[in-house]
Amino acid sequence: MTSYDMLLLRFGEITIKGKNRSRFEKAALAHVKSLLKPYPATKVIREYGRIYVELHGEPAREVSESLKHVFGITSISPVKVSPSRLEDIISAAKEFVGSVPADRHIPFKVNARRVWKEFPYGSQEMNRLVGGPILQAAPGLKVDVHHPELELRVEIREQGTYLYSEVIPAAGGFPLGTNGKAMLLLSGGIDSPVAGWSAMRRGLEIECVHFHSYPFTSKKAEEKVIELAKVLSRYAGQVKLHLVPFTEIQTSLAGTGQDNLIITLMRRSMLRIASLLAEKNGALALVTGDSLGQVASQTLPSMNVIGRATELPLLRPLVMSDKDEIISLAKRIGTFDLSILPYEDCCTLFVPKSPTTNPNLRIIEKIEAGLNGLAEQIETAVRDTETLIIKPHEEVVRSSPDDISSGNMAGAGTIDNNWF
Ligand code: ATP
Ligand code: MG
To answer: Residue 284, annotated ligand binder?
Structure first.
């Protein structure tokens, strides 16, 4: 086993092009630095299209595991660094490849690149000069330049030669916050946390809003949503969670006796409240976990009538995904086990026997107009919303909404370094 000196982080193709490159790279760099806080010996160097993390004794595996969460980074390679002298490069390469048992036949190739033009041997020449001694030292390897299982990259630079072979896939997408901010409607289900992660992966900063019907829904249900937000905060450094008291509105909607339409009515009120919170907090879109056809409220006619309750763009990252795709993503990002805990959601309390799959907008609007207190109830719910600041490894901070919204009008596309 070789010991690594550095991690090489690569940006995605899209990220490195165009005039936004520098802004993107800065945002990813801020994210990397925030995740490196538990590893104080590390040092970060930014280069065109890449970030290097010098390890100085910090554990390569553990650090790369954590940096895999940085959006905008497509892959990570642990790197061994040697002085840029032929004999040093050869001995570092031998150590890197290690002791491959002689009875193995591992297809292998050296891929050298002379970046430093003063180095006396060219790239092709280096493939041979490094490959020869390695093959002698490790008879279990056989050269296969077309389909190598082990490809040793040797990048010769003035300050040192970088040797690496492993390419670990990372989160990809756009760096956090580089596409503005959106408000995620976070239930306790499987879909909405995945939708939130997908939105973050596209460069959106998210704040979460959750509707609860306490005391009809339990504190356990609230804890579950807090835990889900905590998982999301691992990818963001921090997220805000707005907890909206929804009991009164739900009760008055239920009072209309329109059983089949209740879910449609509830969703519309949720969107109105989320839109007001979005406006207050500088978010320019709403994100939901809707997936076309999954339940009655997610048929096209339902989405149409529900979506008209807001003027903000309604982003549904999972709209065309299958449930199994969503589940496997939920497992990958670490929300699945929490999502399947059984605590009831506010919507399950009032689930009618046959919710409509084809609501009529005019009828819905008429019912809402008949509820003369609805607008006030919505405003009250926004006023009484409690906002929590959620960080991955810290106790939850509870504070009133007014303390928070004033300090958080960072415009779309900005990223606050204190934020991590
Ligand atoms: P999920 O797994 O995200 O709960 P679902 O398939 O169970 O989704 P619904 O319960 O119909 O679907 O909810 C659709 C979307 O509405 C959710 O993905 C979420 O964005 C939003 N939503 C539902 N209930 C709540 C809630 N109590 N608080 C916040 N958002 C909610
Ligand atoms: Mg749900």
So the answer is: no
Question: Residue 178, CB half-sphere, CA atoms under 13 Å: how many?
Answer: 24
How far apart, in whole angstroms, are the C-alpha atoms of residue 154 and residue 166? 12
d(CA 96, CA 89): 10
User: Is 3.90.1150.10 the CATH classification of the domain at 6-169?
Assistant: no
Ligand 1 atom nearest to CA at 294: 6
The superfamily in CATH containing domain 181-406 is HUPs (3.40.50.620)
- Output the pTM of the full model: 0.84
Give the pLDDT confidence of 201-255 residue by residue, as tens digits. Answer: 999 999 999 999 988 888 899 999 999 999 999 888 889 999 999 999 999 999 9
DSSP one-letter string for 48-68: TTEEEEE-TTS-HHHHHHHHT
Q: Which two tokens stand for residue 240?
A: 């805000």
* Tokens coding 76: 């990570």
Pocket probe mutation, ligand 1, options 183, 192, 263, max atoms within 8 Å of Cβ? 192
Residues 30 and 37: beta-carbon distance below 8 Å: no
Q: Which atom from ligand 1 is nearest to the alpha carbon of 295?
A: 11
